[in-house]
Amino acid sequence: MAPPGSETAALLDLVARQTTPLTLAHEQTLPVLPVLEGLLPGGALRRGSTVEIHGIGATSLALALAAKPSAAGSWTALVGVPSIGLMAAGEAGLSLNRLFVVRPPTPGSWSGVVASLVGSVDVIVVAGGRRAGNGDLRRLTARLRERGSVLIRVGDTPWISGSSKATSGNGADVRMRIVSSKWEGLGDGHGVLRRRCVEVRADGRGASARPRSAQLFLPGSNGAPEPVELASVAQLRVS
Amino acid sequence: MDDPVRTLVAWCPDWPVVAMGRSLDQPVAVVASNRVVAASRAARMAGVARGQRRRAAQAACADLEVLSRDESIEARCFEPVLASLDDLTPRIEVVRPGTCAFAVRGPSRYFGGDAAVVEGVVQRMTEVVGSRTDVRVGVADGPFAAGLAARLADPVKLVEAGGVAGFLSPMSVTVLEHPELCDVLIRLGITTLGAFAELPASNVIGRFGSAGVEAHRLAAGLDPYPPEARSPGPDWSVSAEIDPPANRVDRVAFCARGLADELHGRLAAEGVACVRVAIEAETEHGEVLLRLWRHEGALSAAAVADRVRWQLDGWLNGSAVSRPSGGISRLALMSDEVIPATGRQLGFWGGETEADERAARVAARLQGQLGIDSVMVPELRGGREASQQVELVSAATVELRGRSIQPESNESAPWPGGLPVPSPARVPVDPVAAELLDGDGRPVIVSGRGAVSGRPARLAVGGRSAEVEAWAGPWPVDERWWDPGSHRRRARFQVLTDDGSAHLLSLEGGRWWITATWD
Predict the structure, then answer these.
(1) How far is CA B73 from CA A5, A205, B35, B39, B97, in A?
(2) CATH code at B308?
(3) What CATH number is given to the structural domain containing B181?
(4) Is pLDDT at A67 greater than 90 in this prediction?
(5) pLDDT (tens digit, 9 = 90+) per residue, B422-465?
(6) pLDDT value at position A66?
(7) How far does the CA of residue A90 sit from the closest CA of chain B (Å)?
(8) pLDDT band for position A161 (50/70/90)?
(9) CB burial of residue B381 (10 Å; 0-12, 13-18, 19+)
(10) For the purposes of burial, counting CB atoms within 10 Å of the CB of B440, is it exposed (0-12), middle (13-18) or buried (19 or more)?
(11) Is residue B308 part of a domain?
């Protein structure tokens, strides 16, 4: 027998379901590789968000984040990073068929170039650019939210110029830092770089405020990121 | 109404080469998007073929001259050839620069038979083309069969009325110019057009979709589009006055772009696509130039705008005799023949998507703003170094929609001495100078026999230095020793420093360089 009021509750539930927009904001996401799901709220990249990555291995992590959307049919643009290893990008899982490498005319003009790409390209990776002005960046983040692209920034230089007080509202939505990394395979005069075990910590604003961390092989032995647990299980079986 | 229109196709072989002003006896290849689109006779003898990559073509023929394609020059050079046929028939359609077609029924009644028309065409075109290339003419029921007849002509091939099916049936299915379809058909054991035409049409549409049905109708010697396709509406034309009259091609082309978009929008609203467009330009003195352009697929807005530009280029910059006496004051586009638009959808064989379309548009916009080299896309190349394996080419030179890059056999071939996976995530455009020191502070060197002078202990880059934690090497490479100009000899090391960064170092000419970093 149903408890009293359950009919009302069911009715309310029905009304709620029928009045929800077709896709909620948090449903508009881009998938990520399973090994990276633990680092992001909801296990996916929210469209319109910005991600900042620091530490040694930041480039590999940025490529790994872009890999799943790219394989699923999204385009990726690398802005201001002519030095990125495109073989590594392909090994990480990015589709080289859907990849732009864009050179801004001056290092300071990256934000204008990114603004043009937003909406047409789903994942935009920026590195090495100078700081952007506060106003430029606010406009850019607003445009990102409106058009639903994801901006990933690699590097240790701060996001924006100006004092921290004026810019406190403008940080990245998700900040990732590689806190430790350990290579396997290379010895003293022998061996070869095989894979690297990294620990990534993520925090940020809003839904990403709760700190998260994950351990993974980045890159794994075939170039793509691999989970640590499975790898160690495999090792146990071998030994 | 199902009978195809009896058509004459006149073809000047190797037109892209001829238009560039080269002789067919020189080894010349014209490339677009890094693929050979046309080659001279001499180059073909040496093994250059259409569709080959530029590098493969150069490998086949060492003294090959490679030219990049310029369709506006091709169209401009073809304009006098077309003008010479104007007194035979007013309705000549250009299939592409180098190939034109017209319905032959009217002219052959007037001149007394197909043979007389063909003779007239050959004579007039040969007068203009001269010894640059030859002229081949084919006549058959329908443009497809006529085009094939022209390809087989020596220099004339007439397929009598009603004999198209017999003419087509022994031909290979590859003449359909539909590589994916042909691939499947050949694997199914259907190698000739006759065998393909015998398949029931309902089974073909079930298996291959609308593209397959068009090919099937072609193979059977029918018109590719069912009869109801041709009922051009009354107002599927757009025109614009140009005031003041324009003498320059770019001003008219700018106007044409807007008109093409408008026409395209109007057709799309009706659910049709345009396969033949008439472009009419009128000067302030009342001279009128009309040309028909045909395309096997549907013409997009950009394709129509391109054709307007080529045509006006040929007219305004042509010889003094044919040049109009005044500026162009009116431009009109008429969609002369339409087919139901099948819409954009993911084809049976994959292909373009909405995302590709948006990406291609943004690439074009950025290239317009920042320069042609600002947006690059990767192409796979062979090589031992991370910097050689992928090359960036301008996005303007490749087709971005439904792109699929595949390594060719020589690129995926094993490269002994190549680096194992994982590949480095950072490959500096210019290698960074570094110093690798041993425990005593002396630079590490490698002897001619590949022996390392000491254990690497410190890596110094630009004033900063780090302890070496692990290392491996040397991996010597001796490349292109047969060519003193590009001979490179170096030894490579993987080095891991105590700050956690791993580098690929290269010792070349006694100096250390960081050529890549595993970031």
Answers:
(1) 80, 57, 19, 16, 9
(2) 3.30.1490.100
(3) 1.10.150
(4) yes
(5) 899 999 888 899 999 998 989 999 988 888 998 999 999 888 88
(6) 93
(7) 9
(8) very low
(9) middle
(10) exposed
(11) yes
**CB–CB contact A103 B376 (8 Å):** yes
A positions 80-139 inside 8 Å of B (CB): 82-91, 96-105, 113, 116-117, 119-122
Within a 10 A sphere around the Cβ of B109, how many other Cβ atoms? 10
What is the domain range of residue B198?
169-224
**Is residue B472 pLDDT above 80, yes or no?**
yes
What interface predicted TM-score (ipTM) does this complex get?
0.82
Q: Give start and end residues of each alpha helix (H) in chain A.
A: 6-19, 58-71, 86-92, 110-117, 134-147, 228-238
Q: Is the pLDDT of residue A1 over 50?
A: no
Task: Please list, residue by residue across B47-76, b when 16 or more beta carbons sit within 10 angstroms of its beta carbon and e when fewer do.
Answer: ebeeebbbebbeebbeebebbebebbbbbb
Q: State whether B426 and A57 contact (CB < 8 Å).
A: no
Q: Which residues of A touch B427 (CB under 8 A)?
A: 83-85
Other residues' Cβ atoms within 10 Å of the Cβ of residue B442: 11
Query: Structural domain of residue A151, as residue ranges?
Result: 27-176
* Count of domains observed in chain A: 1
Nearest neighbour of A100 by CB, restricted to B373, B375, B427: B375
Closest CA–CA distance from residue B103 to any residue of chain A (Å): 42
Distance, in angstroms, between A129 CA and closest chain B CA?
A: 15
**Cβ pair A114, A136 in contact under 8 A:** no
Q: Is residue B57 part of a domain?
A: no
Question: In chain A, which residues have their Cβ closer than 8 Å to the Cβ of B378?
Answer: 86, 96, 99, 101
Q: For the packed helices B71-84 and B301-316, what is the interaxial angle rounded to 10 degrees?
A: 60
Could you say which of B200, B224, B248 is where a domain stops? Answer: B224
Evaluate whether residue A111 is within a structural domain.
Answer: yes
Residue A50 lies in a domain: yes
Say whether B172 sits in a helix, a strand or coil: strand
Q: Across the interface, do B424 and A85 touch by the CB < 8 Å criterion?
A: yes
Burial label, B486 (beta-carbon count in 10 A; 0-12, 13-18, 19+): exposed
Tell me how far apart the alpha carbons of residues A125 and A66 are, in angstroms, rounded to a whole number. 8
Whether residue B479 lies inside any domain: the answer is yes
- Does B268 share its domain with B335? yes
Q: Is the dihedral angle over the CA atoms B130, B132, B133, B139 positive or is it negative?
A: negative
Domain count, chain B: 4
Min Cα distance A185 → chain B (Å) is: 10
Distance CA A107, CA A111 (A): 9
Residue-wise pLDDT tens digits, B163-216:
888 888 898 888 888 888 888 899 989 889 999 999 998 888 888 877 788 888
- Please report where in the chains the tokens 């633990």 appear, as a residue: A38
Q: What is the CATH number of the domain that holds A133?
A: 3.40.50.300
Q: For residue B160, give the 3-state DSSP assignment.
A: coil
Cβ neighbour number for residue A106 with a 10 Å cutoff: 10
Closest CA to A64 of A31, A84, A94: A94
B359-411 pLDDT tens trace: 888 888 887 778 778 899 988 877 888 888 888 888 877 777 777 776 555 55
- On whether both B220 and B241 belong to a single domain, the answer is no
Interface probe for A, chosen from B426, B429, B471, B495 (most Cβ of A below 10 Å), is: B426
Last residue of a domain, one of B199, B224, B249: B224
Interface of A with B in 46-75 (CB under 8 A): 56-60, 63, 73-75
Residue of B nearest to A155 (CA): B519
| A214 domain-assigned | no
Tell me what the mean pLDDT of segment A69-74 comes to.
88
Q: Is residue B333 part of a domain?
A: yes
Q: Which of A117, A107, A98 is nearest to B369 (CA)?
A: A117
Beta carbons within 8 Å of A61's beta carbon, 6+ residues apart = A53, A176, A178, A198, A200, A218
Question: Is A223 in CB contact (< 8 Å) with chain B?
Answer: yes
The rounded distance, in Å, linking the Cα atoms of B168 and A192 is 60
